[in-house]
Specification:
- By secondary structure, the chain is α/β, with parallel strands linked by helices.
- It folds into two domains: 37 residues; 88 residues, no CATH class.
- The chain contains five helices and five strands.
- It has a five-stranded mixed beta sheet with strand order 2-1-3-5-4.
- A hairpin with a 2-residue loop joins strand 4 and strand 5.
- The longest helix is centred in the N-terminal third of the chain and has 25 residues.
- The radius of gyration is 19 Å and the shape is elongated.
Length: 147
């Protein structure tokens, strides 16, 4: 019995590590948001059940999307949390200078959220959502054009 247990345990561990590595590679650059492949991939299951992008790294891609698709000289953006503003520091200077972070949604052209502490989603019409990053069928960051 003992001689059979070791190879089976080795195979289970190998496939477990392989599964996790595959998910992390597939989800790059968001490998910090990895889950067991056995978790359901139902629509928004992870977003509603787990804290996903707690570092806020997805804001960078959201901001890159905005500055590449909106050619305005100044772009008013409201973000749900501070990492949204902090990630602007990674952008090229000419893009950073076009972004103006506003606290009032009435002044914003775009709203960006990584859903941290807000797993239920937002009430804007679906056609206003212009960009989304998904992991296992769950949104981890979205951009809404609200004006």
């Amino acid at each position: 019995m003992g001689m059979l247990f070791a190879p089976i345990l080795g195979l289970v561990l190998f496939f477990s590590v392989l599964s996790t590595a595959t998910l992390m590679i597939r989800n790059h650059p968001f490998e910090d948001i990895y889950f067991n492949a056995l978790l359901p991939s139902k629509d928004q299951y992870l977003r509603k059940s787990f804290e996903l992008d707690y570092w806020g790294t997805s804001y960078k891609q959201a901001l890159e999307y905005i500055v590449s698709h909106d050619k305005s000289a100044k772009i008013n953006i409201n973000v749900s949390l501070f990492p949204g503003e902090a990630n602007a520091g990674i952008l090229p200077k000419e893009d950073r200078e076009r972004i103006r972070f506003v606290n009032d949604l009435n002044e914003a052209t775009y709203f960006v959220s990584a859903y941290r502490w807000h797993p239920e989603g937002y009430n804007w019409p679906p056609e206003q959502k212009v960009f989304t990053i998904k992991i296992m069928n769950s949104d981890i960051c979205s951009v809404w054009k609200i004006k």
